[in-house]
Design brief:
Layout lengths: L2 H10 L11 H9 L4 H17 L3 H11 L4 H13 L2 H9 L21 H10 L26 H7 L1 H7 L2
Length: about 170
């Protein structure tokens, strides 16, 4: 599998609907279940790499602002949502997290728990269970950038002015 196919499968799963991300995990699992087991593992490795690449202090600040707070788990679910939004949104956010102002809905959290969809699809395809070793997980990532005070209005305004306009009145 190559990266373009990874992103194509996200589109096929229909994960871009910001208003209906509650069903993303089921949709993604169904899409991935059509693949061979080795392809699911490769897809999951790309997913983990994308989540690691999005592990930045400024994106964490954006997640904190958008979701009204974000601890470790919340920031991971935000990065899952970001991947689920597709390549264009993902890459624009990595370039500048303030670009998320173009796609967020202030009335909705930007989180999606899709991290286990590939594992579930792999189990379905192979007949394995949760107790069996899954060959794809690699969630280790180093935070990029220097942490800053997400509650400091001046700092938020400086780093994320468009998002601040949407979320801080």
């Amino acid at each position: 599998m190559e990266i373009n196919r990874f992103w194509k499968l996200i589109i096929e799963a229909g994960l871009r609907d910001i208003l209906d991300h509650e069903d993303w995990a089921e949709q993604l699992e169904a899409t991935l279940s059509r693949l061979r087991a080795d392809e699911i593992v490769e897809w999951n490795q790309y997913f983990d790499r994308c989540a690691a690449d999005a592990y930045t202090a400024d994106l964490w600040g954006a997640a904190y602002l958008i979701n009204g707070g974000a601890g470790d788990d919340g920031f991971y679910y935000f990065r899952c949502w970001l991947i689920g939004m597709g390549r264009d949104v993902y890459e624009a956010a990595l370039t500048n997290p303030d670009n998320l102002a173009d796609v967020v809905d202030p009335s909705k959290d930007a989180e999606a728990e899709i991290y286990a969809a590939a594992h579930c699809a792999w189990m379905k395809v192979t007949g394995h269970s949760y107790e069996d070793p899954y060959p794809a997980r690699n969630e280790h990532a180093e935070l990029k950038g220097e942490m800053w005070d997400f509650d400091d209005d001046d700092e938020v305004q400086k780093r994320l002015p468009r998002l601040a306009a949407l979320y801080r009145h």
